[in-house]
Structure formats: C-alpha cells, structure tokens
Design goal:
The protein is an all-alpha fold. It has a domain of 28 residues. The chain contains two helices and no strands.
Length: 56
C-alpha cells in the first residue's frame, strides 16, 4: 500500500489500457507494407567535367 501513497503524493495518475485497443493497434501497424521505390538512374552528362579550385 505504500506504493499507492507515493503515487498519490506525487500527483500521478495510473491509467490502464484495454487489451482490445492494444491488439487492434498492433494489427493496423503491421498490415502496412513499406513502399519500395526504384533506384534513380544516373544523370547523363553530355559535356566534359571541369575542375574548379576553391580557397578558404
């Protein structure tokens, strides 16, 4: 009973979740499949590359 007095003294409230809500939420999250995107093809470059020098 000391545990309940400590909870009341700290002004916390104990909440109990119904088991039906837990299983419904678990089914909803596992039923979605992650969308797979195709890999992007590399960009086609028609001009030669240019080297640029930078300074700090």
């Amino acid at each position: 009973m000391g545990n309940q007095r400590d909870i009341a003294k700290s002004k916390l409230v104990m909440v109990e979740t119904k088991q039906e809500k837990i299983t419904t939420l678990a089914d909803a999250t596992t039923s979605k499949k992650k969308r797979v995107r195709p890999a992007k093809s590399p960009a086609k470059v028609s001009e030669p590359l240019v080297q640029v020098e930078t300074q700090k």
